[in-house]
Amino acid sequence: MKKKIVTFGELLLRFSKLDHLRLTQGDMFTSKYGGSEANVAVSLATLGEDVTYITRLPDTPVGHAGAMCMAQLGVDISHVLYGGQRIGTYYFEPAAGMRAAKVIYDRANSAYYDLKPGMIPWREILKDCSYFHVSGITAAISPQAAEATFEALDIADELGVTICFDINYRKNLWKYEGANPRETLSRMLSRCDMMFGDAIEFEWLSEHPQPPFTATDSNFQMQMNEYREWFDELHEHYPRLKHWMMGMRNIVSSKHHTLTCLLWTEGKLLQAPIIDIPDVIDPVGVGDAFMGAWLHAVKVFPDDRQAQLNYSLAAAALKNTIPGDFNLSTHEEIMDYILSNSVFSQSMRVFSHSFTDCTSL
Asked: 215 partner at 20 to 30 Å CA-CA among 137, 141, 248, 357?
């Protein structure tokens, strides 16, 4: 029986200054490993899933340390490819007060940048795989990495693997000659079965204005009819995609966010509660927390789409409390949060029953 989940993307080394200093201040950087698809892999491993992470790292102590970090968190790294000159990095300046967060990428000529089709034995890796996860970032780094991504998608499709996609549109990454992010991401979407993105990415992809999400607390009323029309329109363009999840965040202040999500699934639109997060620690990787939790929830609650949606939101909300890229929230912690939070009260019966059934997973 196919059970393994495979994620594919670039592992990064993240640098930040201490105590909310700007990148131009101070003498010391802190470092953490991360990267969108790696974040999803760690989330899944923490939730007890059998997950394999595919990337290319330099055959150096820094590259091996990155792979060891993933392995220590329960991720299978047996198919990591080694070669190239350097690991990709990014510099993160967190938000403070009225100052917005800042991200600076340094990924050119990394080991992943030089990845080419034929380097990774996809048929061997995907032969016993149930879900294959990629994001728009995997095709944004370089033209050859984009070709390698489509090679993986085509083989996964041929083998009947469910393909999961995160839009992850990062305009600052599409720098190579001839890059066409809208056309490339549309081609990727046409091969996928499940998709996640935030509302800003949905708006960019569809060129359809987003209904305003200006929640300052959990009492905000969503314009569900407008969202339904939006999702129906998207499904007409991408008929293969049966499951669309959209995350929405309103930044009230640097430390106060509200968060929710919608799920369009087989013609039905479901809404999760709005979570009020008054003390954000680190918002990086929240979208990846959504994606990892969703893949786990699909397996734990296979017949309850609302449970899947609520579980994904709870995991993403908890990620805001954890420093670094990785969501290290366990299944038990997510369930405890759901059962103790009144905004989920309408789903309490579903989750109480499911929790009893799933404690042994």
From this structure: 137
